[in-house]
Amino acid sequence: MKSYLIVLLLFLFIYSCSDGPSKSGYENLKSELEECKKENEKNQKIIEDLKVTPEQKLAEAKIYLDEKNYSVAKEKYESIITHYPNSDISRKAIGYLNQVEASIQKQKEEQERLKTLGFRALKETNKVEVGAVVINFNKISFSKNFVFDRYDDRYHYREAERGNKYVTSSVSISSEIKDPKLPPVYVYKILNGELKYVTSLDYEFARWDDYGSYLGNYADFRNDFSHTKTIRFELGSQISEDVIKSNPVFIIVGNENTYQRNYDRFSNPPVSYTKSTYNYKDNLKVEDFTQDFILVKIFNKNLL
Asked: For residues 203 and 289, is the Cβ–Cβ distance under 8 A?
């Protein structure tokens, strides 16, 4: 195939440097070359596909299943079943495919339920699992002050501006891995039948061992996932008091971990969690909660 392509390229080069054949002949050669290129690309894909073992393909499909990307997982399992019929790998793929199809059906049923009942159908939860992270919401409230970074009998705080309050939440976050990213926590309000983005809550550590560890003079392993499974955080952000009084307020977790750990020796404290990506949606519909977002709390339900 490669030699054939080289010959065609030489012909095209020669004809471009001389009077060459008719224009139609030249166009035919170009067309044939394009077909050869497409055929070559197709063959290369086949070769690359053959390099991947059936076990690797099954493992790849399982990743999509675990991530709840059911459409891609379904496609992967069906491909395995087609290419390796009557094999152990195929039988395993059929079992997983049944799981995928059951999940897709459940998702469709949930979408229909949400369409019928609207935002009233959403279920609140104080425990959310996103990837390798489990976040437990212990308390969510509105206050004038956002308190965090406690040590000894001291603490740090931010005071809300006039006409605003802080949405605050005390959480504990657990993970089996040593450097997890953390999920975003959003505040939305209802506007014209949809949820409208208001703000994102900031991550701050709840407590330090003492003033020295807060300054970064030495490590506080209780605030490091590489040494402890669970860390306490305080979350907070300002919103208008008018929003709190006149709107249903939704506390929502995005189903993707986007906050990463950072270290800056000259900051107090030197460790922080900030957004690595900023991919919130300005407006949410009920169906967005079937996969991409998780409801934690609704305030002012009576206004729904």
From this structure: no
Neighbour tally for 75: CB within 10 Å: 13
124, 185, 199 from 164: Cα distances, Å:
25, 19, 13
The one-letter code for the residue type at 212 is G
Rounded distance between C-alpha atoms, residue 2 and residue 80, angstroms: 30
| Run means of pLDDT, 10 residues per run, the chain, 304 residues | 51 52 64 73 60 83 88 91 89 92 85 69 92 94 97 96 97 96 95 88 97 94 96 97 92 94 93 84 87 92 82
The amino acid at residue 148 is F
Please tell me the distance from the alpha carbon of residue 221 to that of residue 271, in angstroms, as a whole number. 12
Q: What are phi and psi of 64, to 5 degrees?
A: -65, -35
DSSP 37-91: HHHHHHHHHHHHHHHS-HHHHHHHHHHHHHTT-HHHHHHHHHHHHHHSTTSHHHH
Q: What is the pTM of this model?
A: 0.65
Range of the domain at 261: 123-303
Question: Which structure tokens are listed for 147?
Answer: 């308190």
DSSP 8-state symbol, 207: B
Same domain? 19 vs 99: yes
Question: What is the domain count for the chain?
Answer: 2
- Cβ neighbourhood burial of 44 (10 Å; 0-12, 13-18, 19+): exposed
* 49 CB-near residues (< 8 Å, 6+ apart): none
Same domain, 199 and 289: yes
d(CA 223, CA 300): 34
Of 103, 85, 104, the C-alpha closest to 94 is 85
On whether residue 110 sits in a domain, the answer given is: no
Does residue 269 have a cis peptide bond before it, meaning omega lies within 30 degrees of 0?
Answer: yes
